[in-house]
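We store sequence with structure; for instance:
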Amino acid sequence: MAEHWLIIGAAGGIAQGLIQQLLAEGHRVSAISRQAAPAPQPQLSWYQSATPADNGAEVSPELTAVLQQVFSQGVTAVVLCQGWLHGAGMLPEKSLKQLTRQSLQQSLEVNLFSVAFYLQALLPWLQKQPGIKVAVLSAKVGSISDNRLGGWYSYRMAKAALNMLVKCSSIELGRFNKSAVLFSLHPGTTDSPLSAPFQQNLPAGQLKTPADTASYLLATIRAVSEAETGLLVNWDGKVLAF
């Protein structure tokens, strides 16, 4: 049976892996990104749009119109793929003294604020879509109990806050749609621009291609149950501690 997936933050490496895998399986994909549409592909609808965070807490009429069009076709699952770790001369902090307002603000804007306002925009439709799965890409380094190395202050803080956002949102969504599953998803380490500066010391076999990551994530999203709503789930389907 053909599925219809909504991929948000669609220009990144993991998002592209998901899109190509879904299209190869014969499913429909709606994609939202700040970036312009790539070459047209059958079964792919691409919507270029600013993120809700660009407009503060308000959800723009443009985004509302896009979501109305997407959900009018029925949606199987939504994946929010936003993520920022480094850029513009900013790298993950090894020490508290390296933390800057600029790096913390940038990390919060992309990893937390953007996702929060997308969930705000999505909620009216998620409440009415039976059995919908919503995966928010997070990170294992956002787990407080698993943190034994320290460092990476702004990224860890943003992802920990993201996990709380997902937990709270899942509880609210569950009051209106008990069959919905909204959860945080750790994708593992994928060969992408986000991880590129940090790949040289990885153990053999830990770095996955976008295609391999997509296969694992799609299997996990399809298998996740209502009992796992609000939780942090690993790429292989195992629940991770907060």
Q: What stands out?
A: Residues 4-240 form a domain with the Rossmann fold fold (CATH 3.40.50.720). The mean pLDDT is 91. The chain has five helices and ten strands.
